[in-house]
Structure formats: structure tokens, C-alpha cells
Design a protein that fits this description.
This protein is mainly alpha-helical. It starts with 9 loop residues before the first strand and ends with a helix.
Length: 895
């Protein structure tokens, strides 16, 4: 229904309000409410009873009806114990009701009053907090709900008492818990845009879809907690509303149920058998959890884990006194005493460490030993913080706080990680603390767009960790190595070689770093043999790696040797592990590296998905580099699409960041765009600096070489093409697998006349089947060569499979280039084609809409497709019909 043109006064028992209350996530319920109101507007009365959990927003939804409907509205909040006569007097503005009258007589009086009130138009009557009123009020209003259909009156009753039968004839509007997204929106609205996503999500989860709980929990956070620095209380603190609600609920529960509720709140997520055992240790009955399940206060999932209902868990926990909570911790620790599972063993020690009278040092030491082998999670973060609190030794506390900081960083909480390592304050006194602090601060510097600072911090940390913590030294050396490679800085790579040489660990990862660092430096210095082979050999053992950071470094090594398939394989393995373990911080890098490989293979849709997710996660993790790497990947995808506007937009997002931020890849993307569009002169001008000038990026210059060679040959500058290809050829001969699939095409392009045998060889180059973009480009180049030799029929035999590959990759610019080559080779003309015979139903539908002047976006909306998909199908239409423009298409379909 459209909003009213005029502002209608809503009478709220003493004041007038014309505002529409905010009601996030209740659009459907409000629409249902307005449907009843629409009937009132047509002269048919009706009643709605809004019911839902405490704090679910019943009042908010009910109060929207007046401002949204445009009808006269009377509103009152019932008072505790208020009788029908008093409430109706306040609602309708008369004093002719008496408590002495029975319900039927009082309803008759009310109906007479409503007849008079509706002579000037329909009326809405809204009563809130009806559960507080005397039974007589609900009885009269319930009867009235059945008898107003003949009047233009809408009766909205909010807060019917739980357990009472709803009035017959009234529509029940039930408010269910909000979605996680809507609860997070409410939380974000309270905390502000600067609050980290993990804080917002934690509060939203604890609120359990309850709007009031989300608001109150947000308000209860300290400034450090809201900013993502301090650890959140577990569970988050409730506000006064939910504290009072639990007090009311506790008053009607048995002592056994109240005790079981606290056990479920403290032991949230443990198996139901463990909670039953703990309840028994506290003197409770064996059926305590079953009773709570029946009341929907506890949920047991398919794996027999028991979960305390949200937001009741917070209210129960924070209402309990410390002695009761300590008793529950002790009972749970006892119930878990025989646990063999590492997760349950960690839970047992954490419950042991919780009570204040526990011997702290011994438990803290045990907790630390267990945490050393545990994966990063919210639970292990809590464990490290608890272990840090358990000791009076400053050095031990610092070590545990830094370990907590490392977990926070892995979980994607950079503000908290920095805050925790700042609290440790002992970076210069302990090698582990110094090394781990460097690991975190180096990563933070990199995320803030300060690669030189990151290098300095990581290098110092690796030096500190070399003797005392060999495994940490390996990780830091690997990070310095990768930083040098991506930056194209051989001077940084030389520092990485020194760090790798100092590694004393003998594990698979250590060996990979020790071998890869010097070999990578050699590649950067154009000393390809035997460096490329050394790198490839080191990757064979890397297949044994399982940790995500190790897999990412293996992917970086594969990139250095041009092994795009290996890079993708290691990346995808790392991504899977990161998703399972919740390692959010390095997931954006893994996604962008995978996207870069997918883009190079022409798999644009998958690359887009990876890059877009990477940008979103980088933003959530607080990276201040604005997704520079992801924008670079998206620029390459736009270049392959021939989308100059998008390529330029992504280029502008990357350039101008300072000398320490390499721009070689984004400059390559500009040249690649020109090649995709067939602007070969422009491509040469753009790519020569990237490939041939002093100061070129060692890796990017190699990857961009095939584009420069193709462009140079196309403009007749074969000598330039030979100069560019000589270094690339040496890299390929040294063992680059991607280069080995591409180099035969470059040799054929350089051969000139008589290159047919070389092109045949290029079409069957090793690994080409796994690289569809290169396979398509090779066929296109072969077809173009044959057309130049006036062998048009043979040219079409190569161009058709090229076209099919480009179409499957949905690359419109390359489809256009291939289509033009087909026409130039004598492909059949449109007048020989029956349109309906060559187009699919979807292609024909798109063609017809486009031919009458509709835009791609309009067509996409009508057919429920993406604009990109419409563009792809339209390019296929042009190819099949041998057309160049929408005007030609309109003419063909008009015929």
C-alpha cells in the first residue's frame, strides 16, 4: 500500500506522534498488518493480535500501523493490573464504562461509542502491553474483536498473555526471531559503521534474532569491546530488559530447572550427556535437560550437542552469582574428566581454570600445553586469555597474550591482535614474543599498505626467532620471500635468502623455504637454469603440506615457475582449510591468488567470484589497501572482456600508492585490453615498458611477453617480437609449464611464412588442454595465419574451435575478434541463414528484445539473467548471424 499523502495524527494517550518506528526485518509482518487495515478502509472491521517473544518488536510493529495506514489512530499502553473500564476510557476518550457491567454489556457500550467515532471515517485502535492488564480488559477486548466486522474499525492488540487463548475472529500475527542478517543490521545501527564485523556478528548471534537483546547487548559493550580491541564477554552481557525478563521467568521455574539452565549456559555446545552428568553432580534430576527442551530453553542438535537458547543464555549467566558459576564449572570439569577427544580435553581444562579458587599456575600450564596444538578458534582465543590471567609471571603472561594475539589475527580481528600484543609489552625480552609480534605487526603493516615497514618488521622477527623458535623463523622467512617476489624487489629477495640460510628446522616446509628463496632470487635475476627446475623439484615434496600458510607459500613458489595449475591446486587446498578453521585474515590473499590464476586461464566467472569475495573479506578484515591485488585481478578480467571502462576504474583504484607498491601488473592489464580489442599499435606502446625496460617486474614481464609478441607481429615489428621472446624462451626451456604451453605459439608467430608445422605443434603443446584461453588464442593465431596465406577454408577450420572456446569462456572481445576473422575468411552471409534455425530459444528471445531497442539491462531484468549473460548470448547471436551491430540485427529480424 502506498504511504498516505497527508500526515495523519496518531493519538497516543496524551501526545501526538507522526513518526514511523524503525522495524528492521519486519516488512512481511507489517504487510500482513496493513492487509487488515485495508479492509477497515473498505468498511470491514477486523482485529489483529500481535504475539511473540519478549523483546521481539511487537510494540514496534504495532505502532507502525497508524503512521503507515493514513487512518485516524488511537493508541494506549495498558498499565499493570488495569481494569477494562479504565483502559477503554483512556482508549476511546469517554468515561461511560463501569467495572460493574459484565463483558457483554460493556462491549455493547463500546460498540455504541465506536459507531459515533466512525461517523467521520475509519478508526484504528491500538492497545499495547495488554499482557500487563487485568483479565477483564483482555476479556472485553477479545469479545469486541468478534463484533466489529460491521464497523470500519481496526483493533490491534499487542502482547496477549502467554498461555491464554487468543480471541476468536482475530488474526494472529506471530513475530518469529529475526534473521542473522537483520539482527546484525540492528546491531550495526547501534555500534556504528566503524565496529568490526566480528563484533557485530558475535552480538547478533548472542541475541538470537531478538531485536531488544541486540540493542541492549550493543549498549552494554565497553569502548574497547565495541572497537574490536578487548575480548567480548562470553556470553555477552544482557541489558536491563532481558535481565528483568529472566528474573520473571526464573520465578516460575523450579530450582532444578534454574540450575540446569545455568549448566546449559556455562557448558553451551557440550554434549547433552556431559551436561546431564554435570546436573547430577549438582544434585539435579536426570531429566533436567529434557524439561528445558520441552520448554524450548535448550536445543539438542543431531550430534547430541546441547545449546542454550539465545538470548536467554546471556541473561541466565550474568544473573548468577560467582559461587554458582564456579560450582557449575567444577561440575562440568568433573563430567569431562575422562575426555580423550582434544576438543573436550580443552573444554575440561578451561572449566578447571575458570573458578577463582583453582590453583591457577598448574592449570594455566596445562591449558597452554593443550592450546599449543589446537587450531585457531574463538574457543582457543578464550583459552589463551584465561591462561594469561592464571599467572603472575610477566614473561609467561606476555607469551600467552601474544599467542592470543596470533589467534585473533588468524580469525580476522586485527584491532584485537594489535591490542593484545601491545598489552604483552615484552617484545624485546623474549625471542618467541619478539618473533610472533613481528609476524602479526608485519602482516598488519602489509594490510595497511606499508610493504617496506612490513619487510623491516618481519626480517627483525625472523632474526630473533632463528635460534629459539625455528618453526616461527621458517614462517617469517617465507613471508619475507613472498613479499620480495610480489614486489619484484631483488634486494628484498636477497634478504630473504639470508633468512632462509639461517633456518635450522628440517621439516618439509622448512626445506621448501630454504630451497625456494635462493632459487627465486636467481629467477628474478634472469638466471633461469637450474633455478626453475630447482623450484619445481622443491614443490614435489610440498604436496605433503597441510597447513594453510604453508600451502599458500607453495602456491607462490608455483607462480614463480609459471606452474598455474600447481598454483591453483595449492590455493584451493589452502582455501578449503581456511574456511573449515575460520582463518579469515589470510583468506583474501588466497582468494586473490586463485583469482589471478583463473583469470590467466580465461575462467572469468570463477575468477570474478574469487576476486569479489576477496575484496569483501579484505574490507571486513580492516585492510587499508582497498583490495589493490583484487582490483588488479578484476582489471585483467575486464581487459580480457574488452571492457575499457571497468579496466580503467580498477586501474585507478591501484595506481598512485607510492614507489613500494608495484604497478607492473595493472600496466600489463592495460596492454592486455588493447590486445583483446585488436588495438595492436596501442598494445605495443603499452607493453614495451612492462616487458623490456630496465626496472621491469621480473615475473610480470615474463607473463606479459606473449601479449607483446602477438601485438608486435601484428604491426609488422618482428624484430621487437624476437627481442621480447628471447628471455621468455629461456624461461620456458628451463622448465616453466605454462610457458611450455605458450612458447610454441610464439615460435610460430615469429616464423612468418611457412609456419604451418609450428602452428600444428603449438595446437598440441603439452598442457594446453588445461589452459583454455591459451588454446583458443593459439587456434585464433593459426586461423589468422592461414587466412593471410589465402587458405580461407582451412582458416575457418581453426577459427571455429577458437570461437567455441572463447564463447565457453564468455569473453566477448575475443569472440568479436574471432567472428571478424571468420567473416574475413568468407564465413556465410546472413541472407543465407534462417534465424530460427540457428539461434536457441533464449538467444532468439534476447535478439528480438534488443532489436526493438531495449538495453542489455532491460533484457536481463525481463529474463531474470545477469547483464553479463545477456552480453554473452548476444555476442553468440552476432557470430551465428554474421552481424556487427544492433542496427543490422534489427534489420534481419524485421525481414
Amino acid at each position: 500500500m502506498s504511504p498516505p499523502v497527508a500526515v495523519i495524527q496518531v493519538i497516543y494517550g496524551g501526545f501526538v506522534n507522526t513518526d514511523v518506528p524503525s522495524s528492521t526485518g519486519r516488512k512481511t509482518e507489517i504487510s500482513q498488518l496493513i492487509e487488515v487495515v485495508d479492509g477497515v478502509r473498505d468498511g470491514v472491521g477486523g482485529a489483529v493480535v500481535i504475539v511473540g517473544e519478549f523483546g521481539s518488536g511487537k510494540s514496534t510493529v504495532g505502532r507502525t500501523v497508524g503512521p503507515l495506514s493514513g487512518l485516524r489512530t488511537r493508541f494506549v499502553c495498558a498499565r499493570a493490573g488495569e481494569h477494562a473500564a479504565e483502559l477503554l476510557t483512556r482508549l476511546l476518550g469517554t468515561a461511560s464504562y463501569s467495572d460493574a457491567a459484565d463483558a457483554v454489556a460493556m462491549v455493547d457500550i463500546v460498540l455504541d461509542a465506536l459507531v459515533k467515532l466512525t461517523r467521520t471515517g475509519p478508526l484504528l485502535a491500538v492497545v499495547d502491553d495488554l499482557d500487563l492488564a487485568d483479565d477483564s480488559a483482555r476479556k472485553v477486548l477479545g469479545t469486541l474483536a468478534r463484533r466489529i466486522r460491521h464497523l470500519p474499525v481496526g483493533l490491534v492488540l499487542i502482547g496477549w498473555r502467554r498461555g491464554d487463548r487468543l480471541p476468536a475472529g482475530a488474526t494472529a500475527l506471530r513475530l518469529h526471531p529475526l534473521s542473522a542478517h537483520d539482527t546484525a543490521s540492528i546491531t550495526r545501527g547501534r555500534l556504528g559503521s566503524s565496529a568490526p564485523d566480528w563484533v557485530v556478528d558475535s552480538i547478533a548471534a548472542a541475541a538470537g534474532g531478538n531485536p531488544l537483546a541486540a540493542k541492549e547487548m550493543s549498549a552494554a559493550l565497553t569502548p574497547d569491546e565495541a572497537a574490536g580491541r578487548g575480548a567480548l564477554a562470553d556470553p555477552p552481557r544482557p541489558g536491563p530488559g532481558w535481565t528483568a525478563r529472566w528474573a520473571d521467568l526464573a520465578g516460575v521455574l523450579s530450582a532444578n530447572d534454574r540450575s540446569a539452565m545455568l549448566v546449559a549456559a556455562v557448558g553451551d555446545g557440550l554434549s547433552s550427556s556431559v551436561l546431564d552428568d554435570a546436573c547430577a553432580r549438582l544434585g539435579g534430576g536426570a531429566d533436567a535437560l529434557e524439561s528445558l527442551e520441552a520448554m524450548r530453553l535448550v536445543r539438542v542438535d543431531d550430534s547430541s550437542r546441547a545449546w542454550s537458547r539465545r538470548p536467554h543464555r546471556s541473561a541466565v549467566f550474568h544473573a548468577a552469582d560467582p559461587a554458582s558459576i564456579n560450582a557449575v564449572h567444577a561440575a562440568l570439569a568433573g563430567a569431562l574428566s575422562d575426555a580423550a577427544d582434544p576438543e573436550q580435553r580443552l573444554a575440561q581444562v578451561m572449566h578447571l581454570a575458570a573458578p577463582s579458587d583453582t590453583p591457577a599456575e598448574a592449570v594455566g600450564d596445562t591449558l597452554e600445553r593443550i592450546l599449543r596444538t589446537a587450531h585457531a578458534s574463538a574457543e582457543t582465543l578464550t583459552g589463551w586469555l584465561r591462561a594469561a590471567e592464571s599467572t603472575d609471571d610477566d614473561a609467561v603472561r606476555a607469551r600467552r597474550l601474544v599467542s592470543a594475539g596470533l589467534v585473533s589475527w588468524l580469525l580476522g580481528r586485527p584491532e584485537q591482535a594489535e591490542w593484545l600484543i601491545g598489552r604483552a609489552g615484552l617484545a624485546g625480552r623474549d625471542d618467541f614474543v619478539a618473533g610472533t609480534t613481528a609476524q602479526i605487526r608485519g602482516a598488519l603493516a602489509l594490510s595497511q599498505g606499508l610493504p617496506a615497514d612490513a619487510l623491516r618488521i618481519l626480517t627483525a622477527g625472523a632474526d630473533a626467532a632463528a635460534l629459539r623458535d625455528p618453526k616461527l623463523a621458517v614462517d617469517l622467512a617465507a613471508r619475507v620471500t613472498g613479499l620480495a617476489w610480489w614486489g619484484g624487489r631483488s634486494d628484498w629477495a636477497a634478504q630473504a635468502v639470508d633468512l632462509a640460510a639461517a633456518i635450522t628446522d628440517t621439516g618439509v616446509y622448512a626445506n621448501l623455504v630454504r630451497e625456494a628463496a635462493p632459487a627465486g632470487l636467481a629467477v628474478m635475476r634472469d638466471e633461469f637454469s637450474p633455478a626453475v627446475d630447482d623450484l619445481a623439484r622443491s614443490l614435489r615434496d610440498a604436496e605433503q603440506l597441510t597447513q594453510p600458510r604453508e600451502l599458500l607459500f607453495a602456491a607462490e613458489v608455483a607462480t614463480m615457475v609459471g606452474d598455474d595449475i600447481g598454483t591453483r591446486r595449492f590455493c584451493e587446498r589452502a582455501i578449503r582449510v581456511m574456511r573449515v578453521r575460520g582463518h579469515a585474515t589470510e583468506l583474501p590473499f588466497a582468494l586473490q591468488l586463485a583469482a589471478l590464476v583463473l583469470a590467466g586461464q580465461g575462467r572469468s566467472e570463477a575468477a570474478h567470484d574469487r576476486a569479489e569475495e576477496g575484496i569483501r573479506l579484505a574490507d571486513q578484515a580492516g585492510e587499508q589497501t582497498d583490495g589493490a591485488f583484487q582490483h588488479t585481478v578484476l582489471a585483467h578480467l575486464a581487459a580480457l572482456d574488452g571492457d575499457a571502462a571497468a579496466c580503467g576504474m580498477h586501474r585507478r583504484a591501484v595506481v598512485g600508492r607510492g614507489k613500494d607498491h608495484p604497478t607492473a601488473s595493472i600496466e600489463w592489464a592495460e596492454g592486455r585490453l588493447a590486445v583483446s580489442q585488436g588495438r595492436f599499435t596501442d598494445a605495443v606502446d603499452l607493453l614495451v615498458p612492462t616487458v623490456l625496460y630496465d626496472g621491469r617486474h621480473p615475473e610480470v614481464s615474463l607473463m606479459a611477453t606473449p601479449d607483446l609478441v602477438e601485438a608486435a607481429v601484428a604491426v609488422g615489428n618482428v624484430e621487437l617480437a624476437r627481442e621480447a621472446s628471447s628471455r621468455f624462451e629461456r624461461w620456458c626451456q628451463a622448465g616453466s609449464s605454462w610457458g611450455g604451453a605458450v612458447a610454441p605459439r610464439l615460435r610460430a608467430l615469429l616464423a612468418g611464412s611457412g609456419a604451418e608445422a609450428l602452428f600444428e605443434e603449438a595446437c598440441h603443446a603439452p598442457g594446453l588442454a588445461h589452459r583454455p584461453l591459451e588454446a583458443a588464442r593459439t587456434r585464433l593465431a593459426f586461423g589468422t595465419y592461414l587466412r593471410g596465406e589465402r587458405r580461407r577454408a582451412e582458416a575457418r577450420e581453426q577459427l571455429h574451435p577458437a570461437l567455441a572456446l572463447f564463447e565457453s569462456l564468455q569473453l566477448p572481445a575475443w569472440v568479436d575478434r574471432t567472428r571478424s576473422a571468420l567473416r574475413a575468411s568468407g564465413e556465410g552471409r546472413t541472407h543465407d541463414i534462417v534465424v530460427a534455425d540457428v539461434l536457441t530459444d533464449q538467444e532468439l528471445a534476447i535478439a528480438r528484445m534488443v532489436s526493438i531497442g531495449r538495453s542489455n539491462r532491460d533484457v536481463a531484468g525481463t529474463l531474470h539473467l545477469s547483464s553479463r549473460t545477456v552480453e554473452y548470448h548476444l555476442s553468440k547471436v552476432y557470430v551465428k548471424l554474421g552481424l556487427d551491430s544492433r542496427e543490422q540485427l534489427a534489420g534481419v529480424l524485421a525481414d
